[in-house]
Amino acid sequence: MSTPPTPYLLFQGNAREALTFYQEVFGGELTIYTRSQLGRTDGSPDGVAHGILKGVVDLFGADADDGSAGVRTEGLMLSLLGASSEADLRRWFERLAAAGQVVDDLQKRPWGASDGQVLDRFGLHWLIGFESGES
Questions:
Q1: What is the C-alpha to C-alpha distance for residues 79 and 86, in angstroms, rounded to an integer?
Q2: What dotted CATH number matches 78-131?
Q3: Which positions make up the signal peptide (predicted)?
Q4: Distances in whole angstroms, Cα of residue 34 to Cα of each of 15, 41, 55, 66, 74
Q5: Between the CA of residue 125 and those of 21, 60, 65, 83, 99, what are the distances in Å?
Q6: With a threshold of 0.85, does the pTM exceed it?
Q7: In CATH, which of 3.10.20, 1.10.3470, 3.30.70, 3.30.720 is domain 8-63?
């Protein structure tokens, strides 16, 4: 059985906020386990030890351990090409762009597809697009 890779994101103390944001954007079921729930004594007891977003977009995440770097996406984009309806993809683009940065406007390309890029407020770089008439 083949499954696509699921990004596991480490955040600098704001994993709960980030994963909740992604749930608001994409929908799905969010489960968050704190360090104390998993018996961990390193870091804040309320820190996210493991978070799971399952839905149209799957993501895992946690608060980075002390001294560890948080998420950086230089040279990496998370692609949502054709991942849902045109209406969903347009809405996701707008929501991810809120308090983030549009890198390349969502626009029709010479080959007929539409796509664009956005860097969201948590530092993730997204490529979002669809073929004309996709539903």
A1: 14
A2: 3.10.180.10
A3: none
A4: 10, 10, 21, 15, 28
A5: 15, 16, 23, 16, 13
A6: yes
A7: 3.30.720
pLDDT string in tens for the chain (135-residue length): 668 899 999 999 999 999 999 999 999 999 999 999 999 988 888 999 999 999 999 999 999 987 777 888 789 999 999 999 999 999 999 999 999 999 999 999 999 999 999 999 999 999 999 997 644
Q: Which residues contact 119 (CB under 8 A, 6 or more apart)?
A: 73, 100, 101, 103, 125, 126
What percent of the chain is helix, strand and coil (3-state, nearest 5)? 20, 35, 45
How far is 127 from 76, CA to CA, in rounded Å? 10
Task: List the structure tokens of 104.
Answer: 């390349």
